[in-house]
Amino acid sequence: MDKLKLIIQREFLAKVKNKSFIIMTFLSPLLMVGMGALVYFLMKKNDEKIKKIVFVDDSGIFSKETFKDSKTVVYEDYTKLGAEETKKKVEEGNYYGALIIPKKDSLEILAKSIEFYSKDSPGLSVMGEIEGKIERRLKNLKLTKFGIDLAKIKASRISSDIKMFNFSGEESSKAKNVASIIAGGAAGYLLFMFVLIYGTSVMRSVIEEKTSRIIEVIVSSVKPFQLMLGKIIGNASAGLLQFFIWGIIIFILSMVLPLVFGIDMTEMQSARVSPEQMEAMKQAAGGGGKIERLMQGVLALPLLKMFILFIFYFFGGYMLYSSLFAAIGAAVDNETDTQQFMTPIMLPLILGVYVGFFTVINDPHGPISVIFSYIPFTSPIVMLMRIPFGVAWWEIALSLLILIVTFMSAVWIAAKIYRVGILMYGKKANYKDLWKWIRYSS
Question: How many CB atoms neighbour CB 246 within 10 A?
Fold first, then answer.
């Protein structure tokens, strides 16, 4: 136990004293926040540029009332100038584009005959805005043609807000479901990134010690199982410390920078959202336009339970994959040779992310979500994404038990590979060699 403690301490200190580790610990949050600030700055600069679009309406059914100006697009009626003259003027001048609306016998033909001319390819958002305005106008004309009163249609619109309960009487909401999706997705993605970054770090550490022959001295006094376990825990501790510092710095910067530079966070969030999209977001957040319900949904989540289980699955998943990464490091002489062994390990990890984002979000209690939350190679991600939606304790206990048993088995198998592989030089190992090393007796 003392030797294991020394190994963990050695790995932890070696990691945190590394210059690149220290630099990235404090530089990474600055880069993250800086990238966010740069994106916001570019968005603001892009929005400051007014796009001038002219239109020629030979059909006589559109007007300036149809093409109302927005924050970034200004429309001008050039119908009197004619289509050909307008196109020449747009091509020679400082215009974004020209919209040519011909005269047709039917609205259906007209909808497919409208043309847009521009010097450069127009943005999707601009074209979407123009098409939306045209479609609404043509739809209203067609409804009027059918003798339908538009005012009555507008007055007949009713938004429903279904209250959701479980059979124990606990109230749920759409806002809580949205919060569950965000919390579960963030937890699963964070675990995926942690395993990917720090699991490969363990592998590189083993390869480095193996190629420098330091490992031959170490294994003379320490069991391979202890050495491998110490490396995994030491690197995990250093990684958690780094993540903790990142969280503090990002939180402080996100609070301080908007005040220093006078950034309006509400404006920032809605800068690229159309009124229609904003209304849809309000409805998704709980109906009635009450965005604050989303925050209430977050507070309604079992936050303490999620935090505790996040730690368990975080360590369980990391320890499982790190033991396999350490075994790979022991089996090869350089990082180039790891590719043949990396793919089978990475596939279930990636599969867990895909199942989480494409299955759990749509049906958190469906058979696929449940099965993959028990499979130990995917359960750390999938179960973390299911927990915010409410999972029975016995399911969580069973999933953790399977994960722990699999982890112990993986450590035992990886230690067998480790004790032979760390002393093998100059030979590229294959799967047959690994199977042979596992079968070697002590």
Answer: 16
Which is more confident, 267 or 312? 312
**Which three-class secondary structure string do you get for 147-169?**
CCCHHHHHHHCCCCCCCEECCCC
Report the relative pairing of strands 97-101 and 115-117 from DSSP bridges: antiparallel
At 53, give phi and psi (nearest 5°).
Answer: -120, 130
User: For residue 437, with 0-12 CB atoms within 10 Å meaning exposed, 13-18 middle and 19 or more buried, which class applies?
Assistant: buried
Quick one: DSSP state of residue 337? Answer: G
Query: How many Cα neighbours within 13 Å face the side chain of 308?
Result: 8
Give the tens place of pLDDT for each residue, 220-247.
Answer: 677 777 777 787 788 778 877 887 888 7
**Structural tokens at position 114:** 């409208």
* Residue 420: alpha-carbon gap to chain centroid: 39
Which residues, listed in sequence order, are joined to residue 171 by a DSSP beta bridge?
165
Burial class (CB within 10 angstroms; exposed 0-12, middle 13-18, buried 19+) of 215 = buried
Residue 261 has pLDDT above 60, yes or no: no
Question: How far is 67 from 130, CA to CA, in rounded Å?
Answer: 8
- Taking the C-alpha atoms of residue 25 and residue 230, their distance in angstroms, rounded to an integer, is 22
**Tokens standing for residue 213:** 């022959």
Please report, as a single letter, which amino acid is at residue 82: G
State if pTM tops 0.70: no
Alpha carbon 322 to its chain centroid, in Å, reads 23
Block residue for tokens 């409804």: 143
Buried/exposed 23-45: b ≥16 CB within 10 Å, e otherwise: eebeeebeeebeeeeeebeeeee
Is there a contact between 242 and 25 (Cβ–Cβ < 8 Å)?
A: yes
| CA–CA separation, 25 and 46 (whole Å) | 32
Q: Number of C-alpha atoms within 13 angstroms, CB side, residue 86?
A: 25
CA angle at 430 for the pair 426 and 432, rounded to the nearest 5°: 125
Q: Which two tokens stand for residue 420?
A: 């032979």
Token code pair at residue 144: 């009027």
**Tell me, what DSSP letter sits at residue 221?**
T
- Rounded-to-integer distance, Cα 381 and Cα 186, Å: 10
Residues with Cβ within 8 Å of 292's Cβ and at least 6 positions away in sequence, in order, are none
The whole-angstrom separation of Cα 420 and Cα 220 is: 13
The alpha-carbon radius of gyration of the chain (Å, integer) is 30
Contact (CB, 8 A) for 73 and 53? yes
- pLDDT single digits (tens) 144-175: 888 888 888 888 888 776 666 665 555 555 66
